[in-house]
Amino acid sequence: MNIIYEKLCDVCAVWRDEMKTFVRDEGVFLFCLLMPAVYPLLYAWIYNNEVIREVPVAVVDESHSALSREFIQKADAAPDVSVAYRAASLDEARRMVERQEVRGIYYLPAELADAVYEGRRTFVSVYADMAMTLQYKAIYMTATSVVGQMNKDIRISRMTKLTTQRDEDISAAPLRFEEVPIFNPSGGYAGFILPCVLMLVLQQTLMLGIGLSEGTRRERRRMLTVAHLHPSHGYGLRLALGKGLAYFMVYSVWAAYLSIVVPRLFGLVMIAQWRDLLAIMFPYLLACISFGLMLSWMVRYRENVLLLVVFTSVPFLFLSGVSWPLSSIPVFWQKVGALIPSTFAIRAYVRVGSMGATAADVMPELRALWIQAAAYFLVASVVMWRTRK
Hints:
Layout: H1 2-24, H2 26-46, E1 55-61, H3 66-77, E2 81-87, H4 90-98, E3 104-108, H5 112-117, E4 125-128, H6 133-157, H7 165-172, H8 189-220, H9 235-265, H10 274-295, H11 302-319, H12 331-337, H13 341-354, H14 363-387
């Protein structure tokens, strides 16, 4: 019993030492206590509008006909596009795109009206700046919608006057489709990317906090303040358990804040039950903490962890298979992604929070998180024992 009591005292001493680090170390305080609170709000506010509106475009109208004016008027009336300039030539419009005055060009050829009235096919050319995919989508989809509506009106105008409105509608559009967005009703960018970022913030800030703490100790060559904690049997296990408990207590609050409060604060889709969220967040926190402790051996100086997190944040997001289709990711990188806790957490959280899945539906992801938590914790215990030997 005395041995068990002493080992528990060691764990509590490590926990106390790590909790002091949260307050005394400015870097750990910033990344573990302030960044999880502020960064998601800043990110959500930036994308709060969800969709891009009034993208400026230039129009090159060489037709100067009623048909071309109708196209320009309808395009300008659309919510996604604003006809900002009417250029005299295509070269002038291209220079506007180069100066970022506009993001796209609508080119209406001189034979536009003549070709339509003579029953020949003609084209409305769309040039868009591909540097911003969402703006390209707005420009292209607006042109497609306007041209489709004008085609329908032209077909109806060529029909005989002995038809009813119903006959005209069927002849102009025999096949109709109804667009019903699911999981992201607004079709917004925030509803698509923010849930993934929230899960990634937990992992990356944990890695920053743990790495800064370990880097500081190595720079100052400072051991724990516990005199009787010395390298012995189970030393690494006690050290990892004490440090992990400190981070788990702090990040349990942030996990609830990021997974429940932030989505509801900004009106994102969140239909998950608290039991399902708990089933995801509990093993995810354990896996992230163990993952960070395991990688702490790489941190010799405080700056190292900053480089590590900055370098891996975007790749980790892509490897999750949410922002980029998993089927399009090479098998090798899929296996690399399977080593990262955020990969499975992001998939599970998006399916549970936005798609109505339950914990039973995401059991493969939960099982992977539990395996990672156990495996990384054991490796972290060995690593911490060897590095402090």
